[in-house]
Structure formats: structure tokens, C-alpha cells
Amino acid sequence: MISVIGAGPSGCYSAYLLSKAGERVSVFEEHKEIGNPVQCTGIVTSSINSIVKPPKSCITNRVAKARIFSRKNFVDIKLRNENIILDRERFDSYLAEKAVDAGAKIYTDHKFIGNEGKNVITSKKTSKSEIIIGADGPLSRVAKVNNMLKKREYWFGFQARARLDNDNIVEFYPNIGTFGWVVPENRETVRIGILGKENAKTVFENFLKKKIPKNKIIGYQTGIVPVYNPGQQTRKNHIYLVGDAAGQVKATTGGGIIQSLTAAEALADSIINKKDYEKEWRKRLGKDLWLHLKMRKMMDKFSESDWQYLIELFSKKKNNMILQKHDRDYPMNFMLKLLISEPRLVYFAKYLF
Ligand SMILES: Cc1cc2nc3c(=O)[nH]c(=O)nc-3n(C[C@H](O)[C@H](O)[C@H](O)COP(=O)(O)OP(=O)(O)OC[C@H]3O[C@@H](n4cnc5c(N)ncnc54)[C@H](O)[C@@H]3O)c2cc1C
What we know:
31% of the residues lie in helices and 27% in strands. The strands form 3 sheets. An 8-stranded mixed beta sheet has the order 3-5-4-12-13-14-11-15. Strands 6-2-1-10-17-16 form a 6-stranded mixed beta sheet. The chain folds into 3 domains: 2-35 and 88-152 and 231-296, FAD/NAD(P)-binding domain (3-Layer(bba) Sandwich), CATH 3.50.50.60; 43-86 and 154-226, 2-Layer Sandwich (D-Amino Acid Oxidase, Chain A, domain 2); 302-352, no CATH class. It starts with a strand and ends in a 12-residue tail after the last helix. The protein is α/β, with parallel strands linked by helices. It has helices at residues 9-20, 88-101, 141-145, 200-211, 257-272, 277-299, 304-315, 317-325, 335-341, and strands spanning 2-5, 25-28, 43-44, 59-69, 74-86, 105-107, 112-116, 119-122, 126-128, 131-134, 154-163, 170-173, 179-184, 189-196, 217-226, 235-236, 239-241. The structure holds flavin-adenine dinucleotide. Flavin-adenine dinucleotide (FAD) is lined by residues 5-11, 28-31, 39-44, 111-112, 135-137, 141, 157, 159, 193, 223-225, 243-245, 249, 254-257, 260.
């Protein structure tokens, strides 16, 4: 039997793929309901469609324009392929239903406590497993009790849902905290938030104050994002880590839904076809996650005038066209094109060292 710990996107999708291939799979989720509480904005590029096409019932909105801000200027990027705004609760439930339809058993209200050899111990039962998959999010207990969590840094996410009439444009604020956003859920409601370090709450409160009157706020959400560490061990004997538990998250924006699903595919393929998981997921995600991390290292050193300069360069038609056409999940596909189109971008390379 295979035990999957955590019924988020990476756990449910791994369970679905493995069950479909004939494996006996049990998923243990600590919460009583799948997808609840929501700790995510749910924006993904259209690349998700080539992994799992979310049904209409899981989509709250589609957006065709992104606006990136510095403190003084901004640039609009028409997205050739619309971004999708997911209802995370429904999306996680949809993946869970797929897993169950394929034969997996899901046990909610079962918190993973630890494992002794092949015994998986949860708050409600102990079961024998040939394989244990830690899909239990950024603070992965599976990683912790199996001594696989070495050096991991985290960002703290704060988000509010608020009533705000908007033009259906996604706003990105890469210079607010680690990353800030306003994502329209529809024409009257937005998800507004930031990721940041120790002072994230204060940064969020100041950002919110500027953007939204207090009486327009519907509710708050918080969460944690792991900073990608290329050296993270993701397999130890019969224990595997996937998704946020493995830190498979973009270091530029903190987004990890597409990466979690991609890693789940690599994991299922590795288990079913006896491949090397460490190699498989890195083949599919490693280069792009590495580039996101390099960009993060540079972004962290930008001054306000650097941001303004970058936005100016992105506003040039030929550069803007490249950004319109390509998917931000996969910067390896267009970074070189962008550098050839705009050699002045080399100016920022000084921050690599
Ligand atoms: C504020 C915020 C906004 C974000 N916005 C976006 C976005 O717009 N787009 C994007 O792509 N990504 C976004 N992310 C990141 C995205 O949410 C994660 O990358 C994604 O959820 C990872 O999926 P996962 O299945 O690996 O982990 P999770 O979704 O965290 O799922 C882990 C599951 O394991 C369960 N669990 C944990 N511990 C145990 C235990 N001991 N026993 C049993 N079950 C357990 C949890 O309850 C949970 O259901 C955001 C993150 C935050 C914090």
C-alpha cells in the first residue's frame, strides 16, 4: 500500500495517478474538509490545462492582462494565454474526487503523527505502507520526522478578500514585501495580499490600508511558502516528498500549484516505472526553479530605481511582446530571447554576485 499524507493538489493528484495505474493508495488529511482552510490566491497560468484541466466549477475568473508596478511606474502585459483564477477549495475537492474515482481511499480528520519503519501513524489509525508520500505542505511533518528537512527558509503570506470594483487586471507588486498582488475574483471582488519575511504582517497592513477601505474587507487568510532549496532531499528509502513539502515552489512569486502537479506526475511515473524520482522531477522543474531562485536573489537587491528601470525596459514593444507570449512559470523558455532583445538587462546581472 502507498500512504499519501496531505490532500492538497500534490497529494490528491499523486493519489489519482498512482491509483489509476493500479496501486492501492490511502490519503490521510488532517483537516475535516478537503481544501479548507484556503491559504492561497489560486492564480495559475494556462499551462495548468496541459496537466489537469480545471472544470468550469473550479474557475472563478479568467484574466487577460497583468500590470506590474514599481512605486512610480507600471507596465501592462497582455497575456496571450489567459491566466486562470481557481477556487482552491473546489479545485482540491475535484482532485480528491478524481483520486477516489480511480480507487484511492481518503481519510479526512487523520493527522499524520509519524512513522516507524513501514507503519504510518495517524491520529486515528496505524497502517502498513510500502511507500510514504509526504504531500503535507510547507511545514511537512513527514520531512521533519524522517530528518529530511534541513535548511528551509519560509515566507509568510497574508491575504484579504475584499469588495473592490476593478477592470479585471491582475496587479503584481514585486517590490512590496517579497511579492504583492491584487487578483480579481470577479469585477467586484479581489484577493489582495503579500508574501514577506519577519515584518510581513506590517507590510501587508500598510499595503491593504492604501488599497482598500476597511469596511470593504470580507475576510483574511494566511499561509506559509517554502523558499526553494535546490539541495532539498526529496527521497529517502521508501519516503518521498512532493509539492510544498519538497519546496517545489517558484522563488519569484511563491506560486506552486503547477509545480506541485508537475512534481506529482514525476513522482507517480517514478514509482510506477521504477525511475529515480530525484532526477525525474528535476528534469521537469529543476532548471526553471533554479532560474526563479536566481531571479529572486537579484530582486532582493533591487533599489527602487532598479524597479523603475526594469519596468521601462519591459515597456519597450519588442520586450513586451516576448513577455506577452511566454509563460512566467517557465522562464528558461524566454530568458535568452529577452536578453538578446534587450541587452541592457545585463545591467541587473551585477546583483548575481
Ligand atoms: C498566501 C498564499 C498565496 C498563494 N497563492 C498562490 C497562487 O496564486 N498560485 C500558486 O500557484 N500558488 C500559490 N500559493 C502556493 C500554493 O498554495 C502551494 O504551492 C500549493 O498549495 C502546494 O500544494 P501541496 O499539495 O503541495 O500543499 P498544500 O496545498 O499545502 O496541501 C498540504 C495538505 O497537507 C495537509 N497536512 C499538513 N500536515 C498534515 C499532517 N500532519 N497530517 C495530515 N495532513 C496534513 C494540509 O492540511 C493540506 O491539506 C500560495 C501560497 C500562499 C501561502
